[in-house]
Amino acid sequence: MRADQPEIATVAVLGAGTMGHGIAEVAAIAGYDVVLRDIDAAIVEDGYDEIEWSLEKLAEKGRLDEDPDDVAARVATTTDLEAAVSDADLVIEAGPEQLSVKQDIFESVDAAAPADALLATNSSSLSITEIAAATERPESVLGLHFFNPPVKMDLVEVIYGKATTDETAQRGYEFIESLGKTPIYVRKDVRGFVVNSVLGPFMSEPAWMVSAGEATIRQADAAMVHERGYPMGPFELGDLTGIDIGYHVRTEAGRPVPPIMAEKVENGNLGRKTGEGYYDYDDGDGSDYVPEDSEGFDHRRVEAVMANEAAKLVGDDVATAEAIDTGMQLGAGFPEGTCRRADDIGLDTILEKLRALSDEHSDDRYEPADYLVELVEAGHTGTEAGRGFHEYDTGDGLGDYHTINWELDDDGLLEVELDRPSRMNAISETLADEVVDLLSSVDDDEVRAVVFEGAGDRAFSAGADISGFADRDPAQTSEPTDVFTTVAEYPRPTLARIDGYCLGAGLELALACDLRLATTDSEFGFPEITLGLLPGGGGTQRAIRMLTDARAKELVFRGEHISAERAADWGLINRAVDADEFDDVVGEFVDDLVSGPPIALRKAKRVMNEGADESLDAGLEMESQAFALLLTTDDVAEGTAAFAADREPEFEGE
Ligand SMILES: C/C=C/C(=O)SCCNC(=O)CCNC(=O)[C@H](O)C(C)(C)COP(=O)(O)OP(=O)(O)OC[C@H]1O[C@@H](n2cnc3c(N)ncnc32)[C@H](O)[C@@H]1OP(=O)(O)O
């Protein structure tokens, strides 16, 4: 931010509908003074009531740090546009999706808002450049595209219009970060921005296939959900968002409309809102596809067209591959980013598929993006090649991981963050592999202790990633206990720092650690039984050894959550601590672990873990051998000397 630009303190939100009041609410939660404006007093009051209702709900769920009344008190309401924006540092327009309406609003805002205010539109489909043209200061206008509902959705696209300056975009980006949300830059004003551009083929390609009799609706939905792990099928999603919406987007862009889509719109079958769309919700069972319907669907075709769209965006400098992947995960709930998935499939395979489709159908939409061709010609064909859209670790360990973050500090503390907050840090195969890779590659001699934690403020981890679970072939599923065994056997003390849900495989990971500390708001459980499974990552065995028989079986058989207090009372965790003391308590534990004698800690861990499965005599024998060995170490000399001198010992692990 330039020195002459004001800190954002006051935000004016124009439009009190679903998006407007949602944006006003998240801004108020983040501490901004907000003015919510709409043309009609009743609409503004409805919007304000929705904010109050939503804040109460957040407070009930323990997801608000303040009293809801105090947050709501930061939102003022008005119908006077000039009054709303005259003191605003940031104006966010969230009116109807009509260019002329938005241009009228921006013209008025331009006349009334301070000269240095940032002017944003929440448009999801209109041109930022054309909206900005209604002002005398298009350089200060940008898109801030929140997703619905803003309170729940983490992603915001920060979009440049043609004249938007870097300073303007950066101020918008930093504002979004200050809301605790995740911004991605969309550096050119392209139709659909990033998320809707890539989501387009997810919905339209299956529609072309069904229109041509190459697939059925249920087959496509079942395959994309149960085989490829998407949260919804393309037709199910079309019914939810409204088939007419996709239809209008395509016609306005001058793009052909798949016949099945056109037919539905002509017949007024627009989806859930009309009771019938691709599925019948009034007289039928709605989206009633089952996993078995998926057989034979060419999902590669859909994913190839999506990857091609992503390649166009990267090649045209609209967005980076990282931004696209973040956008698709947080904005569309995809299990992984489109670029990352394309890299896993292999960009050469994707290119081949597009060329084959192009030969077969001679349609522009299969024309490979220049950037995709360049990557393949340069040998950057994806994960296996070490580089594709992204760069990959080539097997020599300690790479830049995708689903975990890690840091090894000078004291030897290795912090590992499970980083899939939009999926409650669910443990995917990739995440499990990355933890194993990290622990096997890091130099043990430099590590004195390991702390695992979950990203975000909702979960340590809500378990194994359930997406596509039902359809997974057991023979193809990698050994689920690998990661848990690696953690359990890691030769340094490990600690799980738990704040939020700790369920299923998440709890199994925590149980594989030596120590577990949790905030009192955390919840524990093995819900696997409710899915027809059992805790398959060592959970049954560790729980039965750690708890009484009755308690372990209660956890596994009932699948219920238990509170952190009960978990501590049962001995499942070491402590349940109030949130405001949590960091201090974790710090005290960690200090002891990283400053303790490394060899003695390593031996103690091993003797205790292995001895527990042996007879008492065998365990005592292991203990006495370890004790004798420790007597020969420098650390013992240091420990006893420090005791005699009444000072803190400095153990070197020698
Ligand atoms: C061998 C080991 C096997 C296992 O571990 S099996 C898995 C066992 N775990 C579970 O069954 C827990 C599943 N999750 C839940 O029950 C709920 O979530 C919570 C109670 C943890 C939280 O509920 P709420 O506050 O309503 O949040 P939300 O909308 O359900 O979750 C936010 C997003 O996170 C995704 N998610 C949550 N858990 C998982 C998971 N385990 N695998 C994959 N995704 C998960 C959701 O789907 C959703 O995503 P979207 O926002 O796109 O709808």
UniProtKB/TrEMBL annotation:
Domain named 3-hydroxyacyl-CoA dehydrogenase NAD binding: residues: 10-189
Pathway annotation: Lipid metabolism; fatty acid beta-oxidation
One Gene Ontology MF term: oxidoreductase activity, acting on the CH-OH group of donors, NAD or NADP as acceptor
PROSITE patterns, per the entry: ENOYL_COA_HYDRATASE
Pfam family name, one: 3HCDH_N
Lipid metabolism is among the record's keywords: yes
Keywords: Fatty acid metabolism, Lipid metabolism, Lyase, NAD, Oxidoreductase
Enzyme Commission identifier(s): 4.2.1.17
Keyword Lipid metabolism: yes
GO biological process: fatty acid beta-oxidation
Top-level taxon of the source organism: Archaea
Domain 3-hydroxyacyl-CoA dehydrogenase C-terminal span(s) in chain numbering: 192-281, 296-392
Signal peptide: none
Family of this protein: Belongs to the enoyl-CoA hydratase/isomerase family. In the N-terminal section; belongs to the enoyl-CoA hydratase/isomerase family.
Record-given protein name: enoyl-CoA hydratase
Species for this entry: Haloarcula marismortui (strain ATCC 43049 / DSM 3752 / JCM 8966 / VKM B-1809)
Lineage: Archaea, Methanobacteriati, Methanobacteriota, Stenosarchaea group, Halobacteria
Gene that encodes it: hbd2
